[in-house]
Amino acid sequence: MEYDFDRVIERRNTNCTKWDRVGELFNRQDALPLWVADMDFPVPKAVVEAIKERANHPIYGYSYPPESLYETIVDWARRHYGWEIRKEWIIFTGGVIEGLQSAIQAFTRPGDEVVVQPPVYYPFYRAIKHSGCQIVYNPLKLDNGRYTMDLEGLKHLFVGRQTFPIHQPRIKMLILCSPHNPVGRVWTRDELTRLADICINNNVILVSDELHCDLLFHDARHTVAATLSEEVAQRTITFMGASKSFNLAGLATSYAIIPNPELRQRLLEVRAVRNSGNLFGWVAMEAAYRYGDDYLTELRQYLNGNLDFFIDYINTRIPELRVIRPEGTYLCWVDMRGLGLEPLELQNFIRNEARLALDDGFAFGPGGEGFQRFNLACPRSILAEALGRLEAAVEKLLRK
Length: 400
Ligand SMILES: Cc1ncc(COP(=O)(O)O)c(C=O)c1O
Known about the structure:
Elements: H1 17-20, H2 22-26, E1 32-33, H3 45-56, H4 67-81, E2 90-93, H5 96-107, E3 113-116, H6 123-130, E4 134-137, E5 141-143, E6 146-148, H7 151-162, E7 171-177, H8 189-201, E8 205-209, H9 230-233, E9 236-240, E10 254-257, H10 261-269, H11 279-291, H12 293-317, E11 322-324, E12 331-335, H13 343-353, E13 356-357, E14 359-360, E15 371-375, H14 380-399
Parallel strand pairs: 1-13, 3-4, 3-7, 7-8, 8-9
Antiparallel strand pairs: 2-10, 5-6, 9-10, 11-12, 12-15, 14-15
Helix pairs in contact: 3-11, 4-11, 5-6, 5-10, 12-14
């Protein structure tokens, strides 16, 4: 193993959102942070080297993404997902949420509706509202510890709207989270096909946030929605990036892939610049994709170990909680409804009794109440400390 993911690296006092903002955001300085989705692991060595090399040249003026970066992304999509993309389909964005916001602005008008499937990554809501659109929920279904998409419910959403007096379906877009943050589903080809068919039948743009696609547990396999068929590709905007897989979120650089030239043109019309992101973000992404395969393999092995450890610990020592086993991402969604606490009581319990900084389930929208999201991308010793705190707090709560 080249990487030692067990090593604890002090992140405090580095303007690190996850660690340095805990006091301010959770009102509890000593809460152990397993919240926001970045990793307490170093980036691949090749990334550090590439940034150092570029940093050595002392002028950081206006720049553009190099040809070699486009080639690297094309190669990555082909090698990992069997997706043949073309250079001109790629638009770099300053993070996925920045790109998503442009996509909503480009393909909707204020008042239009956008479907999301909660519980889901909460910045989607802000992006929709900031564009003056309405959020339409198609909540996921939870049966026997497994989440699925409510595809029948989704069909019905359109039926209701098509009979609206104006005879104009107002749903213009569906935002898919694939793999799904926070519940960790890696959607199957069949599920994606059925979802895409509904989008096609109702003339809806599919925005597919696939930022977590490289992060798969055990034998999970990711299907890129746009590879389902040419028809799906022509109405899909896919967001990807190296920021989750290689821990580069602070470099605020990712990309959209848009095969349909008209959609691409419309997206570019609402953007002040074609490509955003930045010089160091592009350098880092290229190095990660070019030289990061071994890192990713080792990382996934380590995350598998963390997940097994986490699930085993909770099942054997805190059986009042139920872990929703994730297939992808490095996040883990835990059902704490068995503790019998109201959402705000649970928040208080997690922060002040367990002394943990986690993401509250209710923040992810309907269906999230009573859940907490853990970030497992940390050295196992930190995870063990977090679980120990949680176990002690639950014991104390139940003894009362
Ligand atoms: C599903 C998903 N999309 C987007 C983002 C944010 O990406 P960015 O930092 O590139 O805006 C995250 C971050 O956690 C995420 O989980």
